[in-house]
Write a sequence for this structure.
């Protein structure tokens, strides 16, 4: 396209990959987190719409991401020349939602791009799958975007088979991920099959496996229950596989993006469960009542109420007796999904010990105890020294440094990390600035991406906005706007 009105000027690497791919029927945008793959996909959607190639877009993303497309990415990046309507998937089929999606699907207006955004988990359900399929059948001039496409790497999962079937209906298809291979090259099969069977040259997993994997026949069980199975023990022809991928995909790493800022900030939204929403509202009402009655008269008392709200959004509640009540929540699940998209070593910050303990436990179970190191009050001096040394050793299997900001913010050089995740923030501006600098300091040779987990519409947003604006929260909470922290 000779002239396209970008709403936000693209970086050089984004423009290069957009020029390569915008008019291709299928393409993989394998851009490392923080390099702007979402923008490339949205500029592609805008260009295809203005060229008369599509009139509809279906965006599929995990729970913690798809709302961000609607709330932030589309308004920020969609070309001003594109008029559009958006419908957000809802699991509960209210009359309002039925009307919205029906109007979107049936609207004959050719001068508006129709966008339906769904969470990938919904496609495991009959209702979600049938809705998406009906939407595409009615609007075949469609672009389907699968964000964080490793969510469909399991070829046996219901949502994977659904997404592959949707791809057969769509005119244009895109997958987005920072790391298409999270465990082994077999992860590629389902992601690429959604794009096209021509991308890898196979529509049979076993044919693909036979070409690129080394398989050994094994047996399990005893007697009549004995069964044979095939175990992958290695891989082959990976240069050939890479060459195939490069024909229909872009691979961009932060270290190759000379025009990116040294610090890249990313936000991941975490949806609260029904239980969390109820408890959060109750705690917020209590805090407002205490403000009105004059009970919250000190900075400490206000900050204590803020911390209680933070506990709820992180998935637990501390009672007056000190006992912790764990709540069903999505934050840890989001972390585990995000780590599949990330390459290299990672720092994970959270100010609360219950968070640190469950993170360390989950990472140890998934990646092995040798892959994770805790660094907080309960960690001995000898263990702290070991964790720091091994984290900085590029050959060490210790990949995840898990710490609270107050303990880990001083005296630690952690420049092996290119990704820093704030599972939760605290209210201390110095803690934030110092913890950021553990990775971004002398010795760092790459861009650093900072990811903040945020429950929209909660205290999370207020704290993050204050920290990003370099505001000292403790000095604010007793001012005229202190009620705003709880409203």
């Amino acid at each position: 396209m000779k002239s396209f009105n970008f709403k936000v000027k693209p970086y050089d690497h984004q423009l290069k990959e957009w020029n390569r791919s915008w008019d291709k029927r299928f393409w993989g945008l394998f851009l490392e987190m923080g390099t702007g793959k979402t923008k490339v996909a949205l500029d592609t959607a805008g260009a295809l719409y203005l060229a008369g190639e599509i009139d509809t877009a279906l965006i599929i993303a995990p729970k913690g991401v798809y709302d961000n497309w609607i709330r932030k990415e589309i308004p920020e990046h969609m070309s001003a020349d594109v008029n559009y309507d958006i419908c957000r998937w809802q699991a509960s089929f209210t009359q309002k939602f039925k009307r919205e999606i029906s109007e979107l699907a049936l609207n004959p207006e050719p001068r508006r791009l129709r966008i339906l955004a769904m969470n990938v988990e919904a496609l495991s359900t009959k209702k979600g799958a049938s809705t998406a399929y009906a939407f595409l059948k009615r609007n075949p001039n469609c672009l389907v975007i699968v964000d964080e496409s490793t969510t469909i790497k399991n070829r046996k999962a219901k949502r994977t088979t659904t997404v592959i079937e949707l791809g057969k209906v769509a005119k244009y298809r895109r997958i987005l991920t920072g790391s298409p291979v999270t465990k082994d090259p077999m992860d590629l099969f389902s992601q690429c099959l959604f794009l096209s069977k021509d991308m890898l040259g196979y529509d049979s997993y076993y044919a693909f496996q036979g070409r690129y994997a080394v398989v050994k026949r094994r047996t399990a069980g005893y007697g009549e229950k004995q069964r044979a199975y095939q175990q992958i023990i290695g891989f082959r022809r990976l240069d050939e596989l890479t060459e195939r991928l490069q024909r229909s995909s872009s691979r961009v790493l932060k270290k190759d993006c000379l025009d990116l800022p040294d610090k890249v900030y990313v936000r991941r939204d975490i949806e609260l469960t029904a239980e969390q929403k109820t408890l959060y509202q109750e705690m917020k009402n209590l805090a407002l009542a205490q403000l009105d009655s004059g009970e919250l008269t000190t900075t400490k008392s206000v900050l204590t109420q803020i911390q209680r709200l933070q506990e709820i959004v992180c998935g637990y509640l501390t009672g007056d007796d000190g006992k912790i009540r764990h709540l069903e929540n999505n934050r840890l699940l989001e972390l585990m999904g995000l780590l599949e998209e990330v390459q290299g070593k990672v720092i994970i910050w959270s100010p609360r010990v219950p968070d640190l303990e469950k993170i360390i436990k989950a990472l140890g179970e998934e990646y092995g105890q040798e892959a994770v190191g805790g660094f907080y009050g309960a960690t001995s001096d000898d263990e702290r020294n070991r964790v720091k040394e091994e984290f900085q050793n590029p050959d060490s299997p210790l990949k995840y440094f898990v710490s609270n900001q107050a303990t880990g913010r001083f005296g630690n050089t952690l420049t092996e990390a290119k990704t820093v995740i704030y599972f939760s923030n605290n209210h201390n501006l110095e803690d934030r600035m110092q913890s950021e600098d553990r990775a971004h300091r002398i010795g760092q040779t790459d861009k650093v991406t900072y990811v903040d987990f945020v429950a929209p519409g909660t205290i999370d947003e207020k704290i993050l906005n204050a920290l990003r604006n370099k505001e000292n929260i403790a000095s604010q909470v007793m001012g005229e706007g202190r009620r705003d922290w709880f409203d």
